Amino acid sequence: MTVNGRLQSFLLGHDFAATQTLADVLRERLGLTGLKIACDEGACGACTVIMDGRAVLSCMILAVEAAGHEVLTIEGLAGDDPVVKAFACQCEPGHGTALQCGFCTPGAVMTAKAFLDENPDPTLDEVKEALAGNLCRCGCYQGIAQAVLAAARGRAGT
């Protein structure tokens, strides 16, 4: 598989077991700890990565299923990526911050990035629907939605 633009080769049974998830391999074998494993059952979105352009829950995909695919983690995003910048800058009065403890942030950023790649000019309702699978224990949902809208504006150059 290609991870963050680099080809990674693994030997099944030697480097990881057939039952290991993509989340485990990314974190434990490659040291990509930006993605978080929280619920480990596909319910929270903390482990979201982008595989072949689509946001996926890496805790629900076996590592062997990622063979031959392109995987992008939060570590693979540039610091000046519009989505990253929008999340970091969001503190608009009345909407609050896009992050507080930061545990959900990598998953929300990756979900937002994949969503904006498909829908570069979303409405607030579309943003809310796209991020419905990403849980935030701190309740920063309004700030997260505003960050995604700001990222869309940033990508459009407005």
CATH architecture of the largest domain: Roll
Q: Name the quaternary structure.
A: single chain
Largest sheet: 5 strands, mixed
Q: Specify the number of helices.
A: 5
CATH topology of the largest domain: Ubiquitin-like (UB roll)
Domain tally? 2
> Looking at the structure, what is the overall shape?
globular
Residue fraction in strands: 5-15%
* Global mean pLDDT: 95
Brief synopsis:
This protein has 158 residues and is of the alpha+beta class. The protein has five helices and seven strands; from the N terminus they run ββαβββαββααα. The strands form two sheets. A five-stranded mixed beta sheet has the order 2-1-5-3-4, with helices on one face.
Description:
A hairpin with a 2-residue loop joins strand 3 and strand 4 (54-57). Helix 2 crosses helix 5 and helix 3 packs across helix 5 (141-156). It contains five helices and seven strands; from the N terminus they run E-E-H-E-E-E-H-E-E-H-H-H. The longest helix has 16 residues, at 141-156. The termini are far apart. The chain has 158 residues and is α+β, with helices and mostly antiparallel strands. The protein folds into two domains: 2-76, Beta-grasp domain (Ubiquitin-like (UB roll)); 82-156, [2Fe-2S]-binding domain (DNA polymerase, domain 1, Orthogonal Bundle), CATH 1.10.150.120. It is globular.
